[in-house]
Amino acid sequence: MYSKITVSALLALMALVPEISAHSVIVKATGANGSAGKALAVDDQTPRDGTRRNPFQRDSTVFRNQRTVAQAKGCGQTIQNGPINVATLMSQAASDGMPQVAPGGVLSMTLHQVNADGAGPYTCMIDSTGTGASFVAMTVTQNVAGQNGRNNRGNMQDLPLQVQIPANQQCTGTSGSATNICMVRCQNNARNGPFGGCVPVQVGAGGGNGTPGAGNGTAPATGNNGVDNAAGANPNTGAGAGNAGGNAGAGNNNRQGNAGNRQGNAGNRQGNRQGNRQGQAGNRQGQAGNRQGQNRQQRQGANNRQQNRQQRRWAA
Ligand SMILES: *[C@@H]1O[C@H](CO)[C@@H](O)[C@H](O)[C@H]1NC(C)=O
Ligand SMILES: *[C@@H]1O[C@H](CO)[C@@H](O)[C@H](O)[C@H]1NC(C)=O
């Protein structure tokens, strides 16, 4: 009897306790050269002008029972999405676009604080495999105001949150043709949280985004064209995946193609100049010919006029 009462009392109590919900969203993450993305499972259709659970909290991430960097595994869950499947949402991110940041560079995020316990301060961490398997702490260069994840003045605000990618960061994650992916995860310490989000980021130029130029450049040499190499890693001893990703980058092919294009253009300019000069010379000769022809005609005309005068005299 006692235990029956306890169970039903517990059930009644659970109905009163608000379901765990989430109260901040990383709605944008900007890298170098205009590249940008957002946290996994963020739904751009979610209105941002309210604080209620539905719809305003539906795409916020909660990292239940993972308060420390050491406890952090994967990318949490949202009300709308449920547990986040990193691989699936990563391929969505790869097709939507991801921020690209050089090693040592800054990733600038916009954190939308839905209500009071989406506040800062935030702890951020990075996973070099892009899968969320294992994170290490990283430097937050601009944080969100708050105490223990609470700040009543932060409701419905877009706030800057910036982290620095470690200078020696290697990123080995891939998704489709996108390479060099790391996962950045930021979370506050709210009692019902932690709240925050997971942002995939390409460190270095990533996959490039253009098709190779149509110029007559030679194919890129294998082995040395990757971002990892540019960042100073030894291509012969670095992780195989990193070098392969860099070498496959279409951006590098572009540079080679551009060199070819520039030479081709130079060739065209030379051809045009040569052709124009020859044409002008021809014109000059033609004009000289015209002048000679005119002179001959004038002389002939004068002769004709004399003959006419002679004939008129004879006739008279
Ligand atoms: C941004 O563009 C510059 C110039 O093309 C390039 O050198 C640099 O690697 C790019 N940065 C990233 C992070 O892709
Ligand atoms: C590309 O074409 C130009 C013009 O014909 C030529 O001068 C140049 O050597 C060519 N470059 C290569 C890499 O073949």
From TrEMBL:
- Compositionally biased, Low complexity: which spans? 217-238, 250-309
Report biased composition (Gly residues) as residue ranges.
Answer: 239-249
The ranges of region (Disordered) come to: 37-56, 210-316
- Give UniProt keywords alphabetically: Signal
Q: Does the keyword Signal belong to this entry?
A: yes
Question: Signal sequence: where?
Answer: 1-22
Which InterPro entries does this UniProt record tie to the protein? Answer: Egh16-like (IPR021476)
Looking up Pfam families in the UniProt record yields: Egh16-like (PF11327)
What name appears for this protein in its UniProt entry? Answer: GEgh 16 protein
Organism for this UniProt entry: Orbilia brochopaga
